[in-house]
Amino acid sequence: MNSRFWRNPWRLMLVINAAVLVGVFLVKIRLPPYVPYIHLLVDYHYGFTKRALIGAIVSLFTDTVPVWLVFALAGTVWLITLGLFIRLFRRTFGFDDAHWPLFVFVAGSPFFLKNFMHTLGHFDIYGCALAIVLLLIPARSIAYVLMAALFSIALILIHHIFVLMYVPTIAAIVVLRFYLVQGLTPRNAVAGIAALAAVGLLFLVAQFAGTVDVPYDEFLRHLQSRMADPSRTDLLQFGYIWYQPLSKEITDTWARMPSNILGIPVFALLIWLHTPLWRYFARLIGALAIEPHRRIMIAAIVMISAGYLVMFAIVFDYSRWISNWAVCMFLMLHAVKMLPASKDVALIPSDDGKTIISGWIITLIPRVGIVRPF
Questions:
Q1: CB atoms within 10 A of CB 301
Q2: Residue 167: how many CB atoms within 10 A of its CB?
Q3: Helix (H, G, I), strand (E, B), or coil: what is residue 311?
Q4: CB of 309 within 8 A of CB of 188?
Q5: Which of 185, 228, 250, 273 has a CA between 20 and 30 Å from the CA of residue 259?
Q6: Residues 128 and 81: beta-carbon distance below 8 Å
Q7: Looking at residue 98, what DSSP letter applies?
Q8: pLDDT in tens, 124-154
Q9: pTM recorded for the entire structure
Q10: Residue from 94, 158, 99 nearest 130 by CA
Q11: For residues 373 and 318, what is the distance between their CA atoms, to the nearest angstrom?
């Protein structure tokens, strides 16, 4: 067994990645879940409220919310996402020896599953999971477009920033899997425009009409009434985010910019470590059989990246944003592989020394973080 591992180090990297994941989990469950916990407390008690869908669903099943529910719910979603991703990878690429390096660079990336474990309880992973579902299910009718719209609506009700974080990726998946295959007809064009309009309108309502109208102290008393342990008032310290206007978020972000921008070289280094993956991605795009498909794919990458640049300017959770941008690129990798190609593409080499070193480095990096690197 040991000799087999050493002959194929990519298998050993997967074992190490699993051990790192366990370590990240053990550290995470010892930390107070400030933001994730309060999201389970906020519901629609005072009418339509931004960031309240998950809390409203939880309120249907229990009147009080224990802290452990954060990890139970988030851990379940994480495991579901892992299962969905494994199924997607098996369908798109397969698990033969030639594809192990690709699997390590994606599944073992500190941007992906390991960082979702570190941010356990945050909402980012919901966008990833629903996007994977859209990559798995058939895309043969307008029902696919409507389902993507429903997914986007649900994400915006969870948190309106999804309009920049995963909705562009969902839109790109719909274009690549449905419109490029089925063609543009008056009927499905109307469905797409209506879906975009509905999602856009909901975002505006959530952003500008989803603020809680009652006094802050009354809002906190309601949240405290839903806590299993009302004495843990320290877990309510982020209640102000339901009152904070967009202008305040932008002001706070730019006030932190001088210190947070110091992390950009670290982010650039982490992205560079994935160079074998990006080169493979570029080869897949270059091998597409239809020229307009290549242009649309590049336009989709630009659109998704532009959304993350806007997020960088308005909200300062930089490590999360760069990690989710990378996850969106991983999803686009699967989407482009589903399009017709004119030739076979060389895979990530399994015996190249530099590639193996990069694989080991990303394997040993436990996560990227939430605001600053690590």
A1: 18
A2: 26
A3: helix
A4: no
A5: 273
A6: yes
A7: G
A8: 999 999 999 999 999 999 999 999 999 999 9
A9: 0.94
A10: 158
A11: 8
